[in-house]
Specification:
GO terms for molecular function: kinase activity. The protein has 195 residues and is mostly helical. The protein has helices at residues 22-26, 30-45, 51-67, 71-78, 82-92, 96-112, 122-135, 140-163, 175-186.
């Protein structure tokens, strides 16, 4: 059963960064881009535990979902210092809402990026998503949030390796990722067709 993602809306008033459109972001000069990225990273990386901080992070992630669908922006973001911070949030965020939105941003970046740098830690993201799916295997709602991102990352690596002569060591995919994926497909929630 495929869960249709609801359109994402962010609140302009509570977003503590400049809310550039994807087009504007893609044309930013390097210094402005770096300033923007710095603000995004420090907001995401903040360790405040109150509900206001969690809401701010969620709002920022909603914003990132809207700009990550632009090919050039996705390519720049996935290759930036933001990607390791997204992985860290996926691993450490206490709030599952944040974790699932982080997974969605990662999936959108993987889907829309047109170029993957060799230093992008996609293997780390795949390992982590695999572990989270395995640990929460009985939680179908959570699986439906995490599986699309895992699939997009696997597809991105396969596409990149097809473009190049030989596979890259930096994009090693653990066999556990395929095992978990196949198990999810085998034991997936099937639509009910009646007797």
């Amino acid at each position: 059963q495929i869960m249709k993602q609801v359109p994402v809306r962010f609140d302009l008033k509570t977003l503590h960064i400049p809310t550039y459109s994807a087009e504007k972001l893609s044309s930013l000069k390097d210094t402005d881009w770096n300033d923007f990225l710095q603000q995004v990273c420090s907001l995401l990386d903040s360790t405040e535990k109150n509900t206001g901080a969690a809401r701010s992070k969620l709002n920022l992630l909603y914003y990132l979902c809207t700009v990550a669908v632009h090919k050039e922006v996705a390519s720049r973001l996935i290759s930036s210092q933001l990607f390791p911070i997204l992985i860290q949030q996926l691993r450490a965020a206490a709030n599952w809402d944040i974790r699932t939105k982080v997974a969605r941003v990662i999936g959108l970046l993987a889907l829309h990026t047109s170029e993957l740098g060799e230093n992008v830690p996609v293997s780390e993201a795949i390992i982590l998503l695999t572990e989270l799916i395995r640990e929460n295997f009985r939680n179908s709602k959570l699986k439906q949030c995490l599986l699309p991102s895992l699939g997009e990352l696997l597809y991105l690596i396969a596409s990149e390796e097809e473009k190049r002569e030989h596979s890259r060591e930096c994009w090693v995919v653990p066999s556990a990722a395929y095992t978990v994926l196949m198990r999810c497909l085998r034991e997936g929630v099937r639509p009910f067709h009646g007797p």
